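Table S2 (text version). Query chain:
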Amino acid sequence: MELHFGATQEYPPMFGCHDRRLGTLRQYHITDADIMLANDLAEILQPFYEITLQVSIKGSARLADVVVFIDQITSHLSSAISNKQHVYPPPALRNACRGGLQLTNKYYTLTNCSPLYRVAMG
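Corresponding structure-token output:
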């Protein structure tokens, strides 16, 4: 998924960053780095979107699928964190992925403790 943006947008005066003579303040302009960060974020979020669509269909979500989904998310986040060949993702996104990985590990542990999950997998 790639995001495309046109020319830098002019902000309305209500944002407090517009000067009639000078235009918008430079700090509010969207840069190429911002676009690259948004593209990296979209790439990281893609599996979450696909899994959400899959479990949102009425009658298709099963308890036994939860661990498979958690494994997919865990694998995706782990590969994003350990990707040292490129600058992808940037450090801020890599840290966010670490937090997401901790959360998926927490939920994975909770599924092992659930009697419903044991019955579903039985």
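Notes on Table S2: Residues 13-121 form one domain. The chain has a mean pLDDT of 78.
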